[in-house]
Amino acid sequence: MLGLPGDVTACLFDLDGVLTQTASVHRAAWQETFNDCLKRWEHNGEPLAPFDPASDYNDYVDGRPRADGVRAFFASRGIQVPDGDPDDPPDRDTVYGIGTRKNQIVQRRIRQDGVQVFEGAIAYLRATQEAGLRRAVVSASQNTREVLRVTGLTDLFEEVVDGVVAKDENLRGKPEPDTFLACAKRLGVSPRQAVVFEDAVAGVAAGRAGDFGFVVGVDRVGHAEELRRAGADVVVEDPVELLERP
Ligand SMILES: O=P(O)(O)OC[C@H]1O[C@@H](O)[C@H](O)[C@@H](O)[C@@H]1O
What we know:
Rossmann fold; 6-stranded parallel sheet; globular; carbohydrate metabolism; EC 5.4.2.6; metal-binding; isomerase
């Protein structure tokens, strides 16, 4: 049914880049924030390689909680940034200060430009609803509720396990499976009965690590091979393609 194994009863959707066109918002905000730091921190005339919005985004920040993304990216440049405090102001060069800076850019963009959805993915989501499948969102983003609100998608989901829930419940972020497992538990289904829809390599890895029944990789940026290597059972450019499968 809907291109999924017959025993599946629940669909766990990532948000940014799967349902909504917000991966590009995060990508641009990370690029601006990180490059500003790298420019200021360049010393002895030695320039630091700028953030690559394709490979660095996919490898270090996509799908991961905000602070994990800051740590992983700077570690890739051999730089250890002090964690600081979660309440650090945005002008502080700590993991949390830098993360807050990036978040201000994301929130400004959402406020000013609104959020576009992927129409195909929403058509697929509605088809899963009509087929009687359970539906939930599992996203690292602490802006998930706001994005669902401005796109009018909130009521299509029974559960939301986002960056806020993960913080409250001490759940490890993707690529660890914790947030997906917590969501399956909330829905009262076993991981084997649930499908994970993910565009991030870290998210596909989380679905695999949680032993979910089926993992759909969503490739909108030409990284199908990486999604397959991370363990996707199938890779599509948009979930709507699954409607054409038996
Ligand atoms: O900073 P937020 O909104 O809590 O989002 C955390 C992460 O959420 C993920 O969904 C995105 O793929 C990342 O790019 C983003 O950094």
